[in-house]
Every structure is written in C-alpha cells, then in structure tokens.
Write a structure and sequence with these properties.
heterodimer, A: 345 residues, mainly alpha, ABC transporter involved in vitamin B12 uptake, BtuC, 17 helices, globular, B: 291 residues, two-stranded antiparallel sheet
C-alpha cells in the first residue's frame, strides 16, 4: 500500500470510529477517547526514536509539557501585548490571536522538535545511554524552569477556560478536541509507517542493529539520529499542545508527570517496537485499560498495572504482543529462521 | 552593598556537607553504572525504599536511622543480588541490555514509586533522632548535626568501599571485570558472580544513603526523581567508576548547588545538576578522573 493510500485508509477507519462514538451519544466517550488517542500519538512518537533507532527517551513528559506550555504561553500572549506593546503592534496581535488549536499544535511541535534537536546534538555523539540519562534530567530541569516562570503560572499553575463552542462546527468543544487528536494520531501513524518503509527507516534500523557497522559503511548516523530525535520530540509536543484546553487547569507536576514517560515507553514495548502497529496496539490496550482501572479502582493502581506490565513484558516477551503473535502464527520464511537459530546454538 | 562574606562561607560549608551526602547517594551508581556498565536508573528508588524502611523502624521501635540501615544492609544486598540475576538472565545474556534493560530499570523505578505511594501516600515523612535538631556553632558559621552526621557516615562508607575495591581480592576482581571479562575468567574468577556481588553492594549502599536522606530532609515517594539527574551528573563528572572522582565531583556539585540556592533561591538548585551534566558531556565526557 502506498503512503497516501494508507493515509486515506487510516482516515476512513478513524472516520468510522468517530461515527461509532456519535452513535453512543455520550460526551464521556470523547473525554476517555481523547486520552487514549493522545497516548497513541505519544507512543508512536516515542517509537520513532526508541523503536526504530534503539535510543531510549525517558523525557517524553518534558516534550509533552513543552507542547502544553507553549499553548499556555500563546493563549496568554494577547494580555501581555495589550499591556506592553504599542497600539499599532497590539492591533496586529489582536488580529492574529486567539490562535486556533491546529496552529498551536504546529507551534508547540516546532518548539519541542527544536528542544529534541538540541538535546540530541549535545548527547548523541556519545554513547546512547547518555542520551537516555540526559532526557531524564531534562524533565527535571524544564520543570524547574516552568516552576520559576511566572508568566505561564509558575508552580501555581495556569487556568485555561475551555470555550463552549468551536469556531467552525456546531459541536461540543471536547468533541472538537477529540477530532483534532484523531487526525493527529492518523498523521503520526502515517509518518511512522512511511519512515519504516523509506531509506530513512532502513538507516534507523542499521543504527539500532549495529551503530558502529552502520557508521563504517557510510550511514550518516549522527544526522539520522538527529532527524529521529527532532521528529519524535515534535510529535510529543504536538500531542501536548491541545492538553491545556482538555484539562482546563495546567500545573507543572501534572504536565511533567512520570505517568507520561512511563506510558510512552510501556505502550510501544508492550505492543512491539519494530513496526507502527505496536505502539498503536499498545496505546489502545493500555490506554483503555487505564481508563477502566482508574474509574473502577484508582488511578494509582492503574499506573501500578502499567509499570508491572512493562517489567513483565520486557522480561517475558521482549518483542511485545506483535512478537508473541509472530511466534504463534509464523510466516512462511519462519522455518528458515528456526534453522538458522538451531545452527547458531 | 559589601560582599556577604559570611553568607558565602556558610554556603560553602553547607555545600561541602551536602556534597558529602551526595557522594553516598552516588557511590552505588558509580559501582553499577561506572564500573559494571549497568544503567541502573532505579537506584534512587532503592534509596527512597531505604528511607522508608528507616522511617518505619524509627516510628515503631524508635531506632536510629543509621543503625537501621546497617541492620538492613544484608536484605538490600540480597535484593540487589536478585535484581542482578533477573537482569543478567533476561537482558545481559541475550545482549539486549541497551533498550530493554533500560526499560526494565525504568519500570522498576516506577513500580517502586507507585507502590510506596499506595502504601504510604504522598505525605512527607521524617524521622526522629537526638542529633537532628542540634547545631554546632563556631563563631559566625553553623554546623548543623543533621548535615554533619550524614557527611561523616558517607566519608566512612566511601573510605571503606575504596579500601575494599583496592585491597581485597573480590574488590580488585570487581575493578577488573570492568576492564576485561575474559582475562578475569582466566584468573579463575567467575565474571558473572563478581558482577552480581558488585551490583548487590551497589544496592546495599542505597540502604545507607536512604537513611542519610531521611535524616537530611523529609521524604515522599517521588523525591528520588530529583536525584536521578544529580547522581548521573556526579558519576559522569567524577569519571565513571572512580570513587575519588565521585567524591570530588559530589563535593563540587554540593558547593555549587548550595551557593546557587543561597544567592538565587532554592527552586533553581535542581537545574544546576543538569547544567553540570550537559557541560561535562559536551566538554570532557571522560570526567575529572576518567580512566
């Protein structure tokens, strides 16, 4: 299937899913569905770097929060400009603002992508593990910056009033957010899939399998890694950009919550990291499970389940659900693989 | 305004004491990450576990936190041994430590934190001991015992470990396993066993570091996360697995953090460690006393 055909097919499937939610006719579906879709985007974004290149990013929450806080900053900008900018400039600002959510998503994604590029540039020339540690620390430092930045609310947090109606269609705002996230998920998955089947994707795979050999055969590893960190960071930022409108009240400890980082890792790992299906599958399964568990038991327990599943899967089923599937329903070339394994051992 | 000399001196001393404590927190990572190449990002979670054990025993029996830590050392040693066994069988043996091993430790970190939240809640917990609220005064500078006792315990711990690593057979085998596993197995020492012992020791130090942590500050389950950036910054800056390097880097970071929080406010302190880490990685990745 070509990429545009896949894109159209994915659009059709998501359109059907949307019609299905309309049939249910309850807004709660959109509230729960938004979170699941947000995790689909996060997990797919993580997988571009983690699954394809083999570089672990622990700072998903930081990139997510960059997107969310860029929205807060943009949302508050007209207030600032009304106070400080001269009249003529201010009228320009008032003409442009308030920005619509898709625009904010693009801006949030661009900023998060730049941060990804910077972090990657500083750490990726060394061993991969330093990148992982740097992303962990990045989350803490960005949180410190946000806590100390009064304009976006500091440690008190920022309120964003969700409008009742949408600018374009006569639907509930949460439904509008849901549709946007659905589109974003379709785009993220299409991009991930097209990377997988392009020269870029093969380059990523060589880095994952043997970086030294890749470098020796002329693969521009650093450049490829930087592309991956930028893309991955950008999509995480995009996933976070509409979040303030969803949650209504954003504070640093919720935006930087470890839950995002854990989910972004656990979902691809549980689904399977080598193809776009894995993160999608993992995000839908784990996301739904968490929604159910937080309603029926408690949110702490639902997080515990995710953590335990992550540990369990990396030990017992290192290739995720897709790996399990392939073991039980081997493809035609599978017997040959068995033979080569037997020879090796 | 004249320069606040007394303030600076007090900040320096507080930083030295803090740095001594950081050395105890980092020494486990220096062993596991620096020497064994096991990226144990769950280490801070084990430290918090140690803090909570010290807290429970202190609450129930009124025992001194440091004494408790010494008593539970064998338990942490066994725990570390078990974790390494799982890690070795599931990841190191299969050559998958890079991606899945990291995810494994991250999962451990997360599970430990959530379990502590489920059991104890997110309230800050603290311990009681005779020396916690006392302060020695010398002229115009203060020596709070709350900081001095952890500093001294940490010094003893690091000196002990350094002697162990450089004088005993097992200790030297641990240093050797980092350099050449094959050569080690030719010397009739099982590299896996040596690594297990070393990793278990690194987790055992978490018991002590945890007790020191809860003496210094009240603890809640997610405090450990603040230490991840710090410990890895110190470990890298100190030159990955060199204990003297770890001490120097820890003291340096402690002083810089203390001065930052004295003059710019404590909310900026966590960013210092990251700046250190990035600077080290960009300028001198081998660290101060790199091998």
């Amino acid at each position: 299937m070509r990429n545009w055909q896949f894109f159209l097919a994915a659009l059709a499937v998501s359109g059907l899913a949307y019609l299905g939610t309309r049939l249910i006719g309850n807004d709660y579906v959109y509230f729960a569905g938004y979170v699941v879709l947000q995790f689909v985007v996060l997990a797919t974004a993580w997988n571009i770097l983690g699954g394809y290149c083999g570089y672990v990013n622990f700072g998903s929450a930081a990139f997510f929060a960059i997107g969310a806080y860029s929205t807060v900053a943009l949302h508050k900008f007209p207030q600032l400009s009304a106070r400080y900018l001269p009249e003529t400039l201010n009228s320009v600002v008032e003409f442009i603002f308030p920005l619509s959510i898709p625009v904010m998503i693009v801006i949030g994604g661009a900023i998060a992508g730049l941060v990804g590029l910077g972090t990657g540039y500083l750490t990726l020339r060394l061993r991969g593990v330093f990148f992982a540690i740097a992303t962990l620390a990045l989350a803490v430092v960005l949180q410190t910056l946000i806590v100390n930045w009064d304009y976006v609310g500091g440690s008190r947090g920022a309120y964003i009033i969700r409008p009742n109606t949408t600018p374009y269609f006569d639907i509930n705002y949460i439904e509008y957010l849901f549709i946007i996230m659905l589109l974003l998920a379709v785009i993220a998955i299409t991009v991930a899939r097209s990377i997988e089947r392009s020269q870029l994707g093969y380059g990523f795979a060589t880095i994952r399998d043997d970086e030294l050999a890749a470098e020796a055969t002329g693969v521009p590893t650093l450049r490829l890694k930087l592309i991956a960190t930028t893309l991955s960071g950008a999509f995480m930022g995009m996933a976070g950009a509409p979040f303030p409108f969803y949650i209504g009240y954003l504070e640093p400890s919720s935006a930087f919550g470890l839950a995002y980082a854990v989910n972004a890792i656990a979902m691809p790992m549980i689904g399977g990291t080598t193809s776009w299906v894995g993160p999608l599958l993992g995000a839908i399964l784990l996301g739904t499970l968490q929604q159910v568990a937080s309603v029926t038991i408690s949110s702490a327990v639902s997080l515990l389940i995710v953590g335990l599943l992550l540990v369990f899967f990396v030990i017992i089923a290192p290739n995720g659900i897709i790996g399990l599937w392939q073991d039980y329903f081997p493809r035609k070339e599978a017997p040959a693989r068995e033979n080569s394994k037997a020879e090796a051992t | 305004m004249d320069f606040p000399f007394e303030l600076l001196l007090n900040a320096l001393i507080a930083g030295l004491l803090l740095g001594g404590f950081y050395a105890a927190v980092t020494v486990g990572i220096s062993i596991s990450f620096g020497i064994l190449d096991i990226v144990n990002i769950a280490h801070p979670a084990f430290i918090i576990l140690g803090s909570y054990i010290a807290y429970i025993v202190n609450q129930r029996l009124g025992l001194d936190p440091i004494l408790t830590a010494v008593i539970v050392l064998p338990v942490f040693y066994m725990l570390g041994s078990a974790v390494y066994q799982v890690y070795y069988l599931s990841f190191e043996k299969r050559g998958q430590e890079a991606l899945r091993g990291l995810a494994f430790f991250f999962g451990l970190l997360f599970v430990t934190e959530v379990l502590l939240i489920l059991v104890f809640g997110v309230d800050y917990r603290y311990v009681q001991a005779a020396y916690i609220e006392k302060t020695l005064r010398f002229g115009f500078f203060d020596l709070p015992l709350r900081m001095l006792v952890p500093f001294l315990v940490s010094a003893v711990l690091l000196a002990g470990l350094q002697i162990f690593l450089s004088k005993t057979f097992t200790g030297r085998a641990i240093m050797a396993v980092a350099q050449d596993q094959l050569a080690l197995s030719l010397m009739a020492a099982d590299p896996i066993r040596i690594k297990r012992i070393a990793f278990a020791i690194s987790i055992a130090t978490a018991a002590i570091a945890g007790a020191l942590l809860i003496i210094i500050q009240p603890v809640e389950p997610s405090v450990g996360r603040e230490y991840i950036g710090r410990v890895f910054a110190i470990c890298v800056l100190g030159g990955m697995g060199s204990l003297p390097g770890t001490v120097i880097a820890a003291l340096l970071l402690g002083i810089v953090e203390s001065i930052t929080s004295t003059f710019y406010g404590p909310s900026w302190a966590p960013a210092v460690a990251f700046g250190f880490l990035l600077l080290t990685l960009a300028v001198r990745p081998a660290g101060l006393l790199g091998r």
